[in-house]
Specification:
The complex is a heterodimer of chains A (520) and B (424). In chain A, 62% of the residues lie in helices and 4% in strands. With 520 residues, chain A is mainly alpha-helical. Chain A has a 5-stranded mixed beta sheet with strand order 2-1-3-5-4. The longest helix of chain A has 35 residues. In chain B, strands 3-2-1-4-7-5-8 form a 7-stranded mixed beta sheet, with helices on both faces. A two-stranded parallel sheet of chain B has the order 6-9. In chain B, helix 3 packs parallel to helix 4, helix 10 crosses helix 11 and helix 11 packs across helix 15. The chains are: A mainly alpha (520), B alpha/beta (424).
Chain lengths: 520, 424
């Protein structure tokens, strides 16, 4: 009898057998211990001198003040929200920044960095789990995490309140579920949802879509792949759609007179924003950005990139290699290249290194007996030597993170503004590193404590400041602000600075923060 | 104040719709959840010797000869050695009786059972025919369905291997290119028999189908056969057997499905759907599902029996709720929540496309780009048709009209070219 019902062999993944369950149970305790240790190490590396290093940045304050506005004023920003980024990132900040340790202190921005430590901890857990899921031996999964958090570039950037840091756990979780060994439909839907969370946290991560999709494609079962794909993409698109839908409901989807719009913001981000030039052109800002990264740590970047290319040839590592490749292409494309671009790459660079080491180890094990011992031994020596070498080159960077005090000037300026020295009905122009502090010191309106950027660029400025620079009373001039006024060509601000004199100065040299009174 | 009440109402409605359509979507996708569930939906390879005898009832009413003859021919042609066929007809339908006698003349051993009930319907004809059955297992085949040659051998295997009391085989509408609504109708069957019913068997509550369903005769006699007053006698039987904890197996294989035709007009479809909806409400109302062993199974029963109605009404409520939320000045979060139920609906469209592709692969049909376009484009219209049927059913329920509206069979499944080689 011919069988019309031809049964393919049941596909039971190893993970579902009872023996595997017992093994997993035994492993789970040691895994918990490993994870606890990794989280502790990460926390220590980031928490030591968190407020003192690195120098507080304008963007950090922007996100934190927007988070405060979400929480306390049911709005997306103290100023006009103009679709610069999707607001999901600072909504997450808002969910945590009400906790006193995340906003109390000499500098609100520095206190807010505590949230980043939490996010880094979650990232580390997910990175370890993802590494294990990709089949890395546990020792190499641990190595991956240590490479990620040990590099001075991480100890610098992971501390800062950037949307990219908020996006990393979402992205890692999306990869984790897209690589599901159970191939469960729900895991693919979840991967899509998490990826939407990633993109709504930081829109630039959208370039990594193909990499997560590849991970899902590779892990999925051929017979149910179509359904897994639909689950993944509908999870992703339907959640992403919330953003333009929100704009549409506010009648801000399309450009038009008298209002901001998502369309206009997209045009700006994709077409109008000045590119940073080629990374190979020594006079370009992209070049100096890359030099800045190299100054912090070139080893994770170079070794990670090389391993990323190798990873493209190993099936299980291919999606991770693709992340590195896609980010590399973006880097070389001469578009706008902000400093924090590198953040999302860091866990994946580390994972590529760990993965390639694991793959090499597997190759060594395939050799015959004597050759195998030589191979394994050689590899062990090379690894130990490499890790020690890295520890040595990384030591100065990590020490710098542990002992620098870059933010004293800012804190002193804030302390001065908290004193009664300046009348509370003055208009004080600040950058966002101290914006919340000054606002809460009694200059309690976004047009009493004014973010310098808005003086020239907010659509509401004409109404609020009819007299232009003459309506301003004080300027808290930070090094960053001084530079930005000229780069962005903020003319009102430049005139105001010209017509002002120093009333107090904190610190010396280029790091000094000045408080200047506008003379009319 | 009013605005707050309306907001709350919108949120409640939106969340309810979201939960129901989400759950429905999730259950529809059961077969494709994991490789294991996918593999679990198939027939086992028939390795054992057939050990049961079968009595197959073919209820016929107002049937034309070619349709009925084709159905019988496929049953006579079974590779299973012990099959008895009973044609169930009604005494008030002399033309069909005549057709049955003509067919019986060419197949010795074929039985004709004539039902003399005052008011005719399918369950009564089935009960009358049941008395004439002698096989261990009683199967029901609709008059317009084409069985695969090796079906009964495989069904026998499932009875043996799973120690089952009931085996539900898959039925598939196949004339998907006849019209835009036949395409959607075919896909509904595909989702139901390829996927959803397997979930029901696993969760121990199953509304059985009325075609290609096999029950041990002893079990059937124990529950006094079918409910002669129920419009969804098949579903009702499933509920009663589930409540008794009888073991139901569902099995699928593209080569073993029973092929059927879609209703040939929209009105016929609406009539058929009205009958089903009404039947489901009747079964819900009868309350046998209350005897299901677990709370989980009981809620699944309630949900499933109400689903044709809730789905249809959600099709009407959703646009209204959305419109209210967009036009009215509500807070952003209320408006966004009102969009929630649209998510499973849109996602379902994507899964429809995936299912149509799988359908084409399973049955070696060439699915054209045009078919995919039709599938997506006509979704709202089809939804409206379902809503229409639901409104009709609700109206009939409240006016106590439980008349049986029969679907006419024109034989579209016989002319679909792809079936020529299906039993090869």
């Amino acid at each position: 009898m011919s069988t019309t019902a031809v049964l393919p062999q049941p596909v039971l993944t190893a993970i579902r057998t009872p023996e595997a369950a017992v093994r997993r149970y035994r492993q789970s305790w040691s895994n918990i211990a490993i994870i606890a240790a990794l989280v502790t190490i990460t926390t220590i590396i980031l928490l030591v001198n968190l407020h003192g290093y690195p120098t507080v940045q304008d963007d950090e304050g922007t996100y934190l003040s927007q988070a405060e506005w979400v929480r306390a004023h049911n709005a997306l920003s103290p100023y006009t929200y103009w679709y610069d980024h999707p607001p999901f990132g600072w909504m997450q900040l808002a969910a945590l920044s009400w906790i006193p340790i995340f906003h109390d202190g000499p500098l609100t921005v520095a206190a807010g960095r505590g949230i980043m430590v939490l996010y880094a901890d979650v990232s580390v857990v997910l990175l370890y789990l993802l590494a294990c899921r990709l089949g890395l031996r546990r020792i190499f999964a641990v190595l991956t995490v240590l490479l990620f958090v040990g590099s001075p570039i991480s100890t610098t950037f992971l501390r800062q309140v950037y949307l990219d840091n908020l996006a990393i756990p979402w992205l890692l979780a999306a990869f984790y579920f897209a690589s599901t060994p159970r191939k469960h439909l729900w895991h693919y839907v979840l991967a899509g949802l998490l990826l939407a969370g990633t993109v709504l946290t930081k829109e630039t991560t959208a370039v990594l879509l193909p990499a997560v999709a590849l991970a899902g494609w590779q892990s999925s079962y051929a017979k149910t792949r179509d359904f897994a794909s639909v689950g993944f993409w509908s999870g992703f698109f339907l959640i992403c759609l919330v953003y333009p839908l929100m704009a549409l409901l506010k009648n801000e989807l399309f450009a038009g007179p008298g209002h901001v719009s998502l369309q206009k913001a997209m045009e700006f981000q994709f077409f109008e924003r000045a590119g940073s030039g080629s990374v190979f052109d020594p006079s370009s800002s992209a070049h100096s950005t890359v030099l800045g990264w190299f100054y912090l740590d070139k080893w994770l970047l170079i070794l990670g990139a090389v391993c990323g290319l190798i990873a493209l040839f190993v099936r299980r590592l291919r999606p991770i290699g693709l992340v590195v490749l896609l980010l590399g292409i973006t880097l070389l494309r001469k578009g706008y290249l902000p400093q924090m671009f590198i953040i999302v790459a860091l866990p994946f660079l580390a994972l590529c290194m760990g993965g390639v080491v694991d793959q090499t180890w597997s190759l060594a094990q395939r050799l015959g007996k004597p050759a195998r011992w030589v191979g394994e031994g050689g590899l062990l020596v090379a690894l130990t030597a490499g890790f020690l070498a890295l520890a040595i080159v990384w030591q100065p960077g990590v020490s710098r993170a542990f002992i620098s005090s870059n933010n004293d000037e800012h804190a002193e300026a804030v302390a001065y503004l908290r004193s009664p020295a300046i009348p509370r009905d003055s208009r004080v122009v600040v950058d966002n590193t101290v914006w919340q502090d000054v606002y809460h010191a009694g200059f309690s309106s976004p047009w009493r404590t004014i973010w310098y950027y808005k003086v020239d660029l907010d659509s509401a400025a004409k109404k609020e400041l009819p007299g232009g620079w003459r309506d301003l009373d004080y300027i808290v001039l930070t090094p960053f602000m001084r530079q930005d006024i000229s780069t962005l060509g903020l003319t009102t601000m430049a005139t105001a600075v010209e017509h002002s004199q120093v009333v107090a100065r904190f610190g010396t040299g280029p790091a000094a923060v000045e408080i200047r009174e506008v003379t009319k | 104040m009013l605005s707050a009440i309306v907001s709350a109402a919108i949120v409640v409605i939106a969340l309810t719709l979201f939960a129901t359509s989400g759950a429905n979507l999730w259950w529809m996708l059961y077969a494709w959840r994991t490789p294991e569930t996918y593999q679990g939906t198939f027939y086992l390879p028939a390795v054992r010797e057939p050990c049961h005898s079968f009595s197959i009832i073919v209820p016929a009413r107002h049937e034309v000869e070619p349709v009925l003859r084709a159905t019988v021919a496929r049953l006579v042609d079974q590779t299973h050695p012990r099959v008895e066929i009973v044609l169930a007809v009604g005494h008030d339908d002399p033309s069909t009786v005549e057709v049955a006698e003509k067919i019986a003349a060419s197949y010795p051993g074929l039985k004709i059972s004539v039902d003399h009930s005052e008011v005719k319907n399918k369950p009564r004809q089935l009960n009358t025919a049941l008395a004439d059955c002698t096989g261990d297992i009683v199967g029901v085949f609709d008059a317009e369905s084409l069985a695969a040659r090796e079906l009964l051998v495989h069904v026998d295997e499932v009875f043996q291997a799973n120690n089952a009391d009931v085996v539900q085989g898959a039925v598939q509408l196949i004339n998907f290119q006849s019209s835009w609504f036949s395409l959607r109708n075919c896909l509904e069957y595909y989702f139901w028999f390829r996927s959803r019913l397997h979930m029901h068997a696993q969760k121990q509550f199953i509304p059985l189908g009325g075609n290609t369903v096999f029950v041990r005769r002893a079990v059937l006699n124990e529950v006094n056969g079918w409910d002669g007053n129920c419009l969804a006698e098949d579903c009702d039987l499933g509920v009663r057997l589930s409540a008794l904890g009888r073991k139901v197996s569902v099995a699928f294989d593209p080569g073993l499905v029973t092929r059927e035709e879609t209703p040939d007009t929209i009105y016929a479809l609406v009539k058929q759907r009205t009958r089903w909806n009404l039947g489901f409400i009747q079964v819900l109302y009868k309350g046998d599902w209350r005897k299901l062993p677990t709370r989980r199974a009981r809620s699944l029963a309630q949900f499933t029996l109400l689903q044709p109605m809730s789905q249809a009404f959600s099709g009407l409520v959703l646009p209204i709720a959305l419109l209210t939320a967009v036009i009215g000045k509500f807070s952003m979060i209320v408006t966004l929540i009102s969009f929630l139920p649209a998510l499973p609906t849109i996602a379902m469209l994507g899964f429809d496309v995936a299912a149509l592709r799988a359908f084409g692969q399973d049955y070696s049909f060439h699915v054209r780009a045009r078919d995919y376009a039709r599938l997506v484009f006509f979704m709202p219209v089809y939804q409206l048709i379902l809503s229409w049927a639901a409104v009709r059913a609700a109206f009939r329920f409240f006016s106590g009209n439980f008349e049986w509206e029969k679907t006419a069979h024109v034989g579209a499944h016989l002319s679909t070219p792809a079936i020529a080689d299906d039993a090869a």
